């Protein structure tokens, strides 16, 4: 045998242990995958899907918050009639986009939380983060019911439902306590209202009235805001009439509506005219 051949054979024999070791490692690595049961493969797939969904939720929440901040800036610019104020249709389009995205985020948050529930008393880190994200969205939704329609009852229901899923959330508990405290007007709070105040000033002190408790008397050019005092139907009222560019309070009555007798609906009081 030639020297070159002997050298090549010896080199191959020297490499053989390393090659065999590499093959064995590859086989050992491949075998667990081959030995996976259908259930294990399904679990692995579900883990991948859950990770991808969590990434979507985080990215969408960030995008939604940015759109909300932009919407608030545009609305403030338009309300102040500033130069370069966006046209109403642009605001309407952005509000629609924000509403649609928020609805989709909330739907998928609920699906994610339910599909990844383990049944343990203490949720995992990612599960808890998803629950807190849902609570943040619930807080914003409840605030919308109050700010846009004065609907404290619906806001309280949202807070109570959210607390059932996230009982250790201090923000939720504080928001619920505030909503409960402002649902009914007290004599002390109502005493802050003075004749001549604008509707915005009254709103800041008493909160927005429920849309169903705003009554107009166009024949007299008067609008009345009724604020419930308790669950009986009794209500205080502030009457506004046009004074200059905007309506101003001209009549204030803490005892405007008494509880209806025998279950009959309360009738609005006669609107008194100023002297």
Describe the structure.
This protein is of the alpha+beta class. The chain has three domains: 32 residues; 139 residues; 77 residues. The chain is built from eight helices and four strands, in the order H-H-H-H-H-H-H-H-E-E-E-E. The chain has a four-stranded antiparallel β-sheet with strand order 1-2-3-4, covered by helices on one side. A hairpin with a 2-residue loop joins strand 3 and strand 4. Helix 5 runs antiparallel to helix 6. The longest helix is centred in the first third of the chain and has 42 residues.
Question: Which helices and strands, and how do they pair?
Answer:
Layout: H1 3-35, H2 38-79, H3 88-115, H4 125-149, H5 152-165, H6 170-183, H7 187-190, H8 199-206, E1 214-217, E2 222-228, E3 235-243, E4 246-257
Antiparallel strand pairs: 1-2, 2-3, 3-4
Helix pairs in contact: 2-3, 3-4, 4-5, 5-6
